[in-house]
Amino acid sequence: MSSPGLQQPTPQLFFQTVNAYQRTEALKAAIELEVFTAIGEGKTTALDIAGRSNAAERGIRILCDFLCIGGFLAKEGGSYQLTPDSALFLDKRSPAYLGNSLEFLLSPMLTDGFKDLAGAVRKGGTVASAEGTVAPDHPIWVKFARAMTGMMAMPAQLMANLVDEKADRKLRILDIAAGHGLYGIAFAKKNPQAEVVALDWSNVLDVARENAGKAGIAERYQTTPGSAFDVDYGTGYDLVLLTNFLHHFDPPTCETLLRKVHAALADNGRAVILEFVPNEDRISPPETAGFSLMMLGSTPAGDAYTFPELERMCSAAGFARSEIHQLPPSIEQVIIAHK
């Protein structure tokens, strides 16, 4: 007999987790069929959505009901409605549309690292290849640069507002592992006195230059191709941006890179680091703490580092002090390390 007030054991979590692939595929199908966009356009019944999506009414009804169960849609009678999150992030007409990010997030080059996760656990790093996604000129980063623009535009703007609030002085900025370039571009758009040098693999920098041209700041945007660990940065930068980069490497490698960054900064310069930063218990908040598993499956030695860990790395590299800032509604944090 069970004690009053104690919850009975249940296999519910087991089955939810085992079947989690269905949630992924349902979302992928809905984005491919533009279900959220159709509903945003006012087509709210299964029949109308099916006509817009060129799909079977039965298929759309079952898919939309499943999306309601998962929290992506709401339903009243036979009418489907977008949730506020779906309206902002999954309707193609929204400037914050995230659907294109699936090309990167569900790329086999990324997901293949999780086909033998037990092997990665045994090894303590990816078994997909020797260097995983941090291999030189890995094609995944071109896919990342093109696919993640919608996701990165908002945090890039938020970070520029945080770091260069007044935008009233000249800034020389080095954007390391620039990718799509949106972080450096956000500073240049906000501050007409800002000049950016973007560093990444040459094939990735093609995307960054395209985005700089679209943003109208191409004349203040330069590029340097190569590895962040090998290229000579030069000196005299007011800001060095390290966005979503340190988590790919172990602490000694991060410290090596941060020493280069420290040497490249002008007096009173700052390194601006964007990362998924878990609490010291390493299990909260779940969205950021869970990023460690992504690094286990896709890199040889990467991790989601706590702020004390990042602070120690920066201190070992010569930085005088570091501070952490939340960047809501993003789940990432900004660490500013002062020379």
Notes on the structure:
The protein is α/β, with parallel strands linked by helices and 339 residues long. It folds into 2 domains: 12-97, Winged helix-like DNA-binding domain superfamily/Winged helix DNA-binding domain (Arc Repressor Mutant, subunit A), CATH 1.10.10; 108-338, Vaccinia Virus protein VP39 (Rossmann fold), CATH 3.40.50.150. Helices cover 44% and strands 17% of the residues. The longest helix is centred in the middle third of the chain and has 15 residues, at 149-163. The radius of gyration is 22 Å and the shape is globular. 37% of the residues are buried. The model has no long low-confidence stretch (mean pLDDT 92).
Write a short abstract of this structure.
By secondary structure, this protein is α/β, with parallel strands linked by helices. The protein has 17 helices and 9 strands.
Helix content: 40-55%
SS summary, helix count: 17
| Largest sheet descriptor | 7 strands, mixed
Tell me, what's the shape?
globular
Q: At the fourth CATH level, what is the homologous superfamily of the largest domain?
A: Vaccinia Virus protein VP39
Q: How far apart are the termini?
A: 64 Å
CATH class of the largest domain, please?
A: Alpha Beta
**How many whole angstroms does the radius of gyration measure?**
22 Å
CATH third-level topology of the largest domain: Rossmann fold
Q: What is the name of the CATH architecture of the largest domain?
A: 3-Layer(aba) Sandwich
Number of domains: 2
Write down how many β-strands occur, each being a DSSP E stretch of 2 or more residues.
9
The fraction of residues in strands falls at 15-25%
